[in-house]
Specification:
The complex is a heterodimer of chains A (334) and B (253). Chain A has 334 residues and is an all-alpha fold. Chain A has 9 helices and 2 strands. Chain B has a single domain, classed as Cupredoxins -  blue copper proteins (Immunoglobulin-like, Sandwich), CATH 2.60.40. The chains are: A mainly alpha (334), B mainly beta (253). At the A-B interface, helix 2, helix 3 and helix 4 of A face helix 1 and strand 8 of B.
Chain lengths: 334, 253
């Protein structure tokens, strides 16, 4: 039940990111000048018929945000009451603190007329909140708790490349958020070229940020292909690794296409917002793959690192599947 | 895992620190309220400058704006960047004395100038006001508006008017030509306000004409500002009691 709830919370966070993307894409961030009230009304009593123009996007974002905040509060309390693993409980508290901070950042950015650093921090922390809720959902899953079937994977190369890929995706999202909030999204108006050239013939800060995002996309693509290629070559029998890899291989071309269309359509607000939420999905999927690759290191007292074919805890010795990896075993650790 | 959780905590704290580190409001440029004229203007010698502003070339057609995002905005709304009349007359150009008044100071009117939100547009589209003089912002529409001014020398503000008939006043403290206004609820709405420390300004009418009255004799730099076509200046000398009626500007598109 807690697992299902955590999945719902993570999914609602993705919806919130999409709604936030719509606010920025439609330029509606300041259509409600006050905060936490809406034109003087308490947020939840604001009349529906007054949700016109930009208010529709901004106020909807606020309503979803406060709903997600409440859901995360319940999640944190639930974990505090029912979760035996201390670090998972801590994750719940951090998620709660993050979403509260996120709400405050959202309010500040409205009251201070969208200063770039605050807006970028707001966008960046949103991804962290999504990662936290997704991580909580992942570690609540029955498969994570009992351990994935088969010989545990402890592949140092996979660990390194997957973790690096996830970090690079986050960095790429930070650059994207900077581009978005400094209004550099169309600083290079063509695609795939830049002003008809491979390299921009002229430079200014906005062009540099925009071009950095394009280079970042190329780097992330290389790392994602390296990670998924490694999984499909060395661990093709491991469903817990193959599935996120397959999803990443679907999301990657989708995300690149959305990025290109964002430029070619002059930042159409729906395409732009889909680009934002797909980017977040790439990040979280890569995080899930990374955490599963590291699963053997999360083994705790009483919780097996892997399951036997029958699904129960193994009573056998510590068998480890290694590919250029160190001799890490699946023995339980606190 | 404890290390990961610890790192996440650090990221969170950093994000919060970033939030608390910026966002300070811009301060108004210092501008004291205008005192009575140090060098009184002799009404017997004042002259005036008038003329016409025209546009050469074919301006973009005034497109009807899609206003379906708010069902209360039923009246047709058209783009206002290029409003032209007969013989190339260009409306909504702000004309003012940019230089030549020396260190004279002028009394600030207490009567407010009105910027109205009507039929989901700002009326007028361009207006002038003196620093220290109130601008009355009115919502005459049966819908919500936010009035969002984005100046550079003055303080930015964003106020909401959710009820029809609401009025609020704002006073600009520093001269600035032009201060853009927008409404983030209705993205098509825009207005431009010229804020000056003297009363010698005008906005061209339908026939492109303007007039600056009551100018003391002197040599002045006159500037004409259009929201899309930029700025043009001319030097004009006004003799005592002279009416300069042939000052013209031509913008090209």
């Amino acid at each position: 039940m807690l697992f299902l709830y955590a999945v719902i919370v993570a999914a609602s966070t993705a919806v919130l990111i999409f709604a936030g993307g719509m606010v920025t894409s439609t330029g509606s961030g300041l259509s409600v000048p006050d905060w936490p009230n809406t034109y003087g009304w308490f947020m939840w009593t604001f009349p529906l018929e007054k949700m016109v123009g930009g208010i529709f996007y901004e106020h909807t974002h606020r309503l979803i945000a406060s709903t997600v905040g409440f859901l995360i509060l319940v999640l944190a309390v639930w974990l505090w009451r029912a979760e035996p693993r201390a670090w998972v409980r801590r994750l719940g508290y951090i998620a709660l603190a993050a979403v509260v901070t996120q709400g405050i950042l959202g309010g500040i950015t409205v009251l201070w007329y969208l200063p770039d650093p605050i807006s970028i921090a707001h966008a960046s922390l949103a991804e962290i909140v999504f990662c936290l809720t997704a991580t909580i959902a992942l570690v609540q899953s029955p498969a994570w708790k009992r351990g994935y079937r088969g010989t545990p994977v402890d592949d140092a190369v996979l660990n390194r490349v997957a973790a690096t890929t996830t970090a690079l995706i986050y960095l790429q999202i930070l650059i994207g958020a900077t581009m978005r909030h400094t209004d550099a999204g169309l600083a290079i108006p063509d695609f795939p070229y830049a002003f008809g050239h491979v390299l921009p013939p002229q430079w200014d800060p906005k062009i540099a940020i925009h071009f950095a995002h394009r280079v970042g996309a190329l780097v992330v693509t290389c790392f994602l292909l390296a990670t998924t290629g490694h999984v499909l070559y060395h661990h093709r029998s491991r469903r817990e690794l193959v599935w996120p890899s397959a999803i990443l291989l679907c999301l990657l071309p989708l995300q690149i296409t959305l990025g290109a269309l964002t430029v070619l359509t002059g930042k159409h607000y729906i395409i732009n917002s889909l680009h934002v939420v797909t980017g977040a999905s790439v990040l979280v999927t890569s995080l899930v793959l990374t955490l599963r690759a590291f699963r053997v290191r999360f083994a705790e007292s009483g919780v097996p690192a892997y399951a036997t074919a029958g699904g129960g805890p193994s009573k056998g010795g510590p068998h480890v599947s290694k590919v250029n990896g160190g001799p890490h075993t699946s023995e339980a650790r606190a | 895992m404890a290390a990961i959780v610890k790192n996440l905590s650090v990221i969170l704290v950093l994000a919060l620190a970033t939030a608390c580190g910026g966002g300070q409001e811009k301060q108004d440029a210092a501008s004291t309220p205008a005192a009575p004229a140090a060098v009184p203007i002799d009404p017997a010698t004042v002259g005036s400058i008038s003329g016409r502003i025209t546009l050469e070339g074919t301006p973009p057609k005034a497109d009807r704006i899609k206003t379906t995002s708010d069902p209360n905005c039923m009246a047709p709304v058209f783009t206002e960047s290029f409003v032209t009349g007969d013989k190339g007359a260009l409306q909504n150009v702000f004309v003012y004395v940019k230089d030549g008044l020396g260190n004279r100071t002028f009394p600030v009117p207490t009567e407010p100038v009105v910027l109205e939100q009507k039929n989901c547009t700002y009326v007028p589209h361009v207006l002038g006001v003196m620093a220290g003089q109130p601008v009355e912002l009115r919502n005459s529409d049966p819908t919500l508006h936010n009035i969002h001014a984005v100046p550079e020398a003055n303080r930015e503000f964003n106020m909401g008017q959710p009820i029809q008939g609401m009025k609020q006043q704002h006073i600009f403290s520093a001269k600035e030509v032009m201060v853009p206004f927008k409404c983030d609820v209705h993205r098509w709405m825009s207005a431009f306000v010229g804020v000056l420390d003297h009363p010698f300004y005008a906005v061209t009418s339908k026939d492109g004409s303007f007039e600056l009255k009551g100018l003391p004799p002197g040599t002045y730099t006159i500037e004409a500002v259009h929201e899309k076509l930029g700025r043009q200046t001319q030097t004009v000398t006004v003799e005592p009691k002279e009416t300069k009626s042939d000052v013209s500007f031509m913008f090209k598109v």
